[in-house]
Design brief:
The complex is a heterodimer of chains A (about 190) and B (about 210).
Chain A lengths: L1 H13 L10 H6 L4 H30 L8 H23 L1 H7 L3 H4 L3 H12 L4 H29 L11 H15 L9
Helix pairs in contact in A: 1-8, 3-4, 3-7, 3-8, 4-5, 4-7, 7-8
Chain B lengths: L1 H15 L10 H6 L4 H24 L9 H23 L1 H7 L10 H11 L4 H31 L1 E2 L7 E2 L14 H22 L3
Antiparallel strand pairs in B: 1-2
Classes of the chains: A mainly alpha (about 190), B mainly alpha (about 210).
Chain lengths: ~190, ~210
């Protein structure tokens, strides 16, 4: 129990997946322009990462390890994730059209979100149990969501500011993210494994 | 005439469509592993290898891959080459493999590689795709080298640390500016470099 809670805190605040570990930077820069899209993307990522961590963990320990096919780990994981995203999309379209309208457009983008594959690989590399892996997935994706929402709040304000011509666009966003990352360094050392 | 076409394929990836400074793709490894020049170079070479191989294979299979399932096909081809590179690194340069960590398998989801497959290799002949892969890979490597150079010089005060050519740049009393080696420094240095290249490209009117 103690370990589960510390995993939760470490990967939301101390080792934030976006700001400290650099996973999922592309969507972080791409869809953080508006608060609304940031919320949608964040929700979709939490959903997909939690589910994919569960499935990839089971695939690794119940299919790849008994068959000694660990070298196929990467190919299998990326296929499982891509298939899962497709499945979730199709399922949501039939089962819950309202939820699909909210998450639908973000789902295809998630396949190339490196945070999803990173969580799956790290859960196996760090020898997490099934429950720990799922909590790890939830924590990492909540951290991603939080960073995305904070960033979109800043960027909505930034639209009203006068930015020098050369810094406009991605450059100022990166520098803002740097300052945000600096702020998150305050959590460092609070909790470690 | 033909040679000019190939040359253009290479230089386009380095300048006009530089993955890091122009297209802003593949940001995760760019920010994460550029603490030392050595790591930047290692990651750059790994990406060149994967990108060139995957471009060639995808281009030669472009008539056989059905349009509807092309993305999964591309991903499987890329993942295969990444697995090969991962094993090679693990066997021959274990120290570098450990330093790059999980970012070696994550080359699979590096947007540059899938981006080049989708935008170029899926439509163009094999030889042109080969040069396009080399060009984009070189452009990516140059970006990594530039970023890691700045971060290593200011962040640890060394040049080419952990290699045979390691140089201590400043005197013994130099206190390294640790922030450059931290995640926050990566964001800020890359932001400033992007601004700088914006100015340079505008002056040279490369756009």
């Amino acid at each position: 129990m103690e370990k589960l809670i510390s995993i939760l805190f470490i990967y939301i605040l101390v080792d934030n997946f976006v700001l400290q570990r650099f996973f999922g930077i592309c969507p972080f820069l791409g869809v953080s322009r508006k608060m609304e899209t940031a919320m949608g993307m964040g929700m979709a990522v939490v959903f997909v990462i939690t589910l994919s961590t569960l499935v990839t963990w089971l695939v690794h320990y119940y299919i790849l390890v008994p068959l000694r096919l660990e070298f196929l780990q990467l190919v299998t994981f990326i296929l499982v994730i891509a298939g899962l995203v497709q499945l979730v999309e199709t399922f949501l379209r039939k089962a819950s059209p309202t939820l699909y309208q909210g998450l639908g457009i973000y789902l295809p983008l998630i396949t190339t979100n490196c945070a999803v594959l990173a969580v799956a690989l790290l859960a196996v590399r760090q020898d997490f149990t099934l429950l720990e892996s799922v909590v790890f997935g939830i924590a990492a994706s909540l951290g991603f969501w939080m960073a995305l929402v904070i960033m979109s709040g800043i960027r909505e304000r930034l639209d009203l500011a006068k930015v020098p011509a050369a810094l406009q666009g991605t450059a100022i966003t990166l520098i803002t993210a740097g300052i945000l990352s600096l702020a998150f360094m305050g959590f460092r050392g609070m909790l470690t494994f | 005439m033909m040679n000019n076409l190939y040359l253009a394929d290479i230089t386009r990836g380095i300048f006009k469509e530089n993955p890091i400074f122009r297209l802003v793709l593949g940001m995760c490894p760019t920010l994460a592993i550029t603490v030392l020049v050595k790591n930047g170079l290692g990651m750059g070479l790994a990406v060149i290898a994967v990108l060139t191989c995957s471009n060639v294979v995808i281009s030669s299979l472009r008539r056989f891959i059905p349009e509807q399932v092309r993305i999964p096909c591309y991903i499987v081809i890329i993942a295969t080459f990444v697995t090969i590179i991962e094993m090679v690194l693990q066997a021959f340069v274990p120290a570098l493999y450990d330093a790059l960590g999980v970012f070696v398998p994550l080359i699979v989801v590096n947007c540059i590689i899938l981006g080049r497959a989708e935008a170029f290799a899926g439509k163009q002949p094999v030889l042109r795709s080969l040069f396009d892969g080399i060009g984009s890979g070189l452009g990516f490597t140059l970006g990594l080298l530039l970023l890691s150079l700045v971060r290593e010089v200011f962040g640890s005060g060394t040049l080419l640390a952990e290699t045979n050519f390691a140089v201590q740049l400043f005197g013994a009393n130099f206190e390294p500016m640790r922030i450059f080696a931290q995640p926050a420094g990566a964001f800020i240095v890359l932001g400033l470099l992007l601004a700088l290249t914006n100015i340079v490209f505008k002056r040279l009117q490369i756009d």
